[in-house]
Amino acid sequence: MKLDAGAKAPDFTLPDQNGKEHSLSDYQGKWVLLYFYPKDDTPGCTTEACGIRDSWSAFKRRKAVVLGVSPDSVKKHEKFATKFDLPFTLLADSDKKVVQAYGVWGKKKFMGREYMGVNRVSFLIDPKGKIAKVYPKVKPAEHAAEVLEDLKTLG
Fold it and tell me: Beta partners for 130?
């Protein structure tokens, strides 16, 4: 399933890096950056997470919530968040229901090998719960700045 701008963002409930449950509907009334990433503590995922961390004060000024989602466990998320001092929420989608609901689970290629995995895709969700923008090909080093620019324009 492919979700486009204007679609209602599918609600979900997942545990964070501390085991606390979060639902997308908890953040009604706020801008939410829902970003999907393949795996904790890998080069691209670390670059992306640290870019958001380094721009955290700008996200807070915009009153935007950041939710990172990967199939990694709560324990792996906790290690990743602690190691890199991440101030935002990481959600564990261990059964891959949310990555499938958002259409980010699919075929990937790495060094000539094909496999199934999480594609690096983000969704900017408006305060009414609609998808304002989809980022289908996220560049980890530039993502935080790109989203903040869009929040200025859209928000």
Answer: 8
CA angle (153, 67, 69) in 5-degree steps: 125
- Among residues 43, 52, 96, 107, the alpha carbon closest in space to that of 73 is found at 96
What is d(CA 87, CA 98) in angstroms, rounded to the nearest whole number? 22
Which of 42, 22, 33 lies closest to 131 in space, CA to CA? Answer: 33
Q: What amino acid positions are annotated as catalytic residues? A: 45
Task: Please tell me the pTM assigned to this model.
Answer: 0.95
Cβ-Cβ contacts under 8 Å for 24 (sequence gap 6 or more): 9, 10, 11, 12, 32, 34, 67, 125, 129
β-partners of residue 14 are 22
Residue 2's pLDDT is: 77
What type of residue is 117?
G
What is the Rg, in whole angstroms, of the alpha carbon atoms belonging to the chain?
14
- pLDDT tens digits, residue range 81-91? 999 999 999 99
- Residues forming beta bridges with residue 123, ordered by sequence position: 34, 134
119 pLDDT exceeds 90?
yes
Whether 66 contacts 35, CB under 8 Å: yes
In this structure, the number of other CB atoms found within 10 A of the CB of residue 98 comes to 23
